[in-house]
Amino acid sequence: MAAVKETVDRVKAIDVDAYKYGFVTEIESEKAPKGLNEDIVRFISAKKNEPAWMTEWRLDAYRRWLTMEEPTWARVDYPRIDYQDLYYYAAPKSTAGPKSLDEVDPELLRTYEKLGIPLREQEILAGVQSSKVAVDAVFDSVSVATTFRAELAKAGVIFCPISEAVHSHPELVKKYLGSVVPVTDNYFATLNSAVFSDGSFVYIPPGVRCPMELSTYFRINERNTGQFERTLIIADAGSYVSYLEGCTAPQRDENQLHAAVVELIAHEDAEIKYSTVQNWYPGDSEGKGGIYNFVTKRGDCRGARSKISWTQVETGSAITWKYPSCILRGDSSRGEFYSIAISNGRQQVDSGTKMIHLGKNTTSRIISKGISAGRSNNTYRGQVSAHRKATNARNFTNCDSLLIGHDCGAHTVPYIESKNATAVFEHEATTSKISEDQLFYCTQRGLSDEEATALIVNGFVRDVLQQLPMEFAVEAQKLIAISLEGSVG
Amino acid sequence: MLEVRNLHVSVGDRKILDGLNLTVKDGEVAAIMGPNGTGKSTLSYVIAGRDGYDVTEGEVLVDGVNILDMDATERANAGVFLAFQYPMEIPGVATMTFLKAALNAQARARGGKELQTPDFMKKVREASQKLQIPQDMLKRALNVGFSGGEKKRMEILQMALLQPKLAILDETDSGLDIDALRIVADGVNALRAQERSFLVITHYQRLLDYIKPDTVHVMARGRIAKTGGPELAHELEKTGYAGFVGEAA
Ligand SMILES: Nc1ncnc2c1ncn2[C@@H]1O[C@H](COP(=O)(O)OP(=O)(O)OP(=O)(O)O)[C@@H](O)[C@H]1O
Ligand SMILES: [Mg+2]
Predict the structure, then answer these.
(1) Does pLDDT of A9 surpass 60?
(2) Interchain contact, B91 vs A441, CB within 8 Å
(3) A14-38 pLDDT, tens per residue?
(4) Whose C-alpha lies nearest to ligand 1, atom 30?
(5) Residue among B48, B52, B90 whose CB faces A444 most closely
(6) Gap from A400 CA to chain B (nearest CA, Å)
(7) Protein residue with least CA distance to atom 17, ligand 1
(8) Residues B118-134: what's their mean pLDDT?
(9) Residue A443 is nearest to which of B52, B73, B141, comparing CB atoms?
(10) Quick check: is B190 in a domain?
């Protein structure tokens, strides 16, 4: 009987494709009219009461975007996106800009509670949550709450929605926005520059070690709505910050577009650690619905001895197009990229990194673990380059792919380019299948096929999991097991 | 406990087990000896439910239930344990993590409660001390970089923790030094019980000096060719398998 019940439970779980966050919040929202033109860009800018310089910046981006072509070089395949058939702005009606937590619509608080994201500071302090994390919660196009701001302000740390930073810290925004990812960097980044809605702004003053983890939690709720978040993090000389990003979306039959831009700037001796657990709705097992995740993330190690590390766990999205990169400008600066990318069902992942060595003695490290199951396709695309002046540049790349089943694909596309003879780049790559012998060994000890697979996969990605902050690592581990459900047997 | 009836097994075109019959009673320790390549490991894999074998005829009963329709997981949870001749390495998975996953899986399958972490740790610590397995080894990835003897000891640790009904030891003695052999044998002897049976596959009398079998079977050419008491093993030591191999030829 127990076996029967278990089977029923499992089938149920697979039936909803095991996506736990697929619920929709019933909340009235205010949207911009469908489609994209200069008026929509102005509408968004006006909604946020932006100063003229910001409006102009957006319009300039929009006009450039009109002249660009959507890129086709990635190993992903999707029907043409009709950019006039999307909403570019949606905000819960109850939220007219960020407020104190007491004023946040209880329906929104409940949503984040259901997602496991603590927004009530008292509860966090009371120990409901194991450690303190400040959260900026972005719901569709707006930030609905940012926690622990007062405490952070005491340390001189600025953590607020970017829409607010435009008003409160225009000099910083003007100086840094678009300085790492130029407006015309690529099609999606340019689109984002025109219509970006909200995201987080972080500034860590010189010499400050940010007293807690910062995080932004992105939620797309509305139908047919693109989310264009924009995040800007500046670590001034000698400072340190660890930042986490999480994302989920309801289960919908149509595809939703998410085109974010994240810019990081690390000054002399500063360090930024940026971790993502990306769990957008991946679509069902037949490939219906899911998020198109077209994201530009780049960090600029601007000062000497600065360090930026990207850690990502990519489990969601129908399509992932994402290459968190580092520009190693400062001498002796360091870039790191740790990635776990899992694809199942009909998911398509084309992800990797770029390490651009410009300064002397710059070092970088890339550890990528790709896992493909079902009928998915998983491509690692990485570029490591050394500029003429990058004397003694060093890179180590390790890129492992694991295949589960016979209908999936894994591809590795490394580009290496060196204009300095002293640069040393090492590249290791492996592709393996979970061996029948390993699976048998585990099942002989009583594990189910799925538990065995999850265990072996967790072992495979361990090097990267270790890079994540503790709680995130535990979360990620569970997520990996869920993502692979239905992939064996 | 275990009853194998007229078992025929092939892989592809190759017939490996050819009408094998074998009975192991409750609480019995049965040894199987036999030349290389006669199908001893194959028999243990087929009992444990490894994929890739065609059972063309016959039955394998555990406590009267034919287990051939069960998958490997179900058989393990029904109390069948195999100490592998070549234990697998599981990179990145700490031994402790693996042990916990296995214990919990079996507890759940039997409708029991999962062990609390402190109880689990205590249990593992005690069992591993008996087998002289150092604690830091439990933090390492399972079997990765373990010496041959360490791997074998780890198999016995798993058996001690999982407390199976039927334990099959496939050449657990090979690769063990004299002290380790004694430790492992003590581990096995400690588990001997009326409700537990053992099938001990070995090439050497030495192991049987420590683990005293109730019965000894000689396997040749995919069948049990002769069955006797402990004295049969001594006899083989002197005569070798020539008689058995020849007889069937
Ligand atoms: N998957 C397979 N494909 C082809 N032949 C196989 C396969 N598995 C086992 N065999 C063959 O079946 C025979 C029995 O193998 P098995 O490993 O069971 O022998 P064994 O009695 O355990 O030998 P040893 O004492 O050397 O461990 C061998 O000849 C082996 O090559
Ligand atoms: Mg063998």
Answers:
(1) no
(2) no
(3) 333 456 666 666 666 677 788 889 9
(4) B37
(5) B48
(6) 13
(7) B41
(8) 93
(9) B73
(10) yes
Nearest CB to A451: which of B88, B89, B105? B105
Q: Span A448-468, mean pLDDT? A: 87
Pocket of ligand 1 from Cβ distances under 6 Å: B 11, 14, 16, 36-42, 52, 85
Interface list for B 24-53 with A (CB within 8 A): 48-52
What integer is the mean pLDDT of B136-149?
94
Which CATH number covers residue B223?
3.40.50.300
H or E element in which residue B67 lies: none
Residue B133 located in a structural domain: no
Q: What is the pLDDT of residues A261-310, one digit of tens each?
A: 999 999 999 999 998 887 777 777 777 777 788 899 999 999 999 999 99
Predicted TM-score (pTM) of the model is: 0.80
Q: Beginning with the edge strand found earlier in the chain, give each strand of the sheet holding B80-83 in spatial order.
A: B80-83, B166-170, B197-201, B29-33, B215-220, B223-228
Q: What distance in Å separates residue A455's CA from the closest CA in chain B?
A: 7
Under the banding of pLDDT at 50, 70 and 90, the label for residue B248 is very low
Work out how many domains chain B is built from and give that number: 1
**Residue A96 or B104, more confident:** B104
Taking the CA atoms of B210, B215, B219 and B222 in sequence, report the sign of the dihedral they define. negative
> How large is the average pLDDT for residues A334-345?
89
- pLDDT on residue A440: 97
Q: Where are the domains of chain A?
A: 2-483
From B8, B40, B43, the mutation candidate for ligand 1 (largest count of ligand atoms within 8 A of CB) is: B40
Question: Residue B212 falls within a domain, yes or no?
Answer: yes
Domain that holds residue B236: 2-91+164-248
3-state secondary structure of B101: helix
Examine residue B199 and state whether it is found in any structural domain, yes or no.
yes
Distance B220 CA to ligand 1 centre (A): 12
The rounded mean pLDDT for chain A is 82
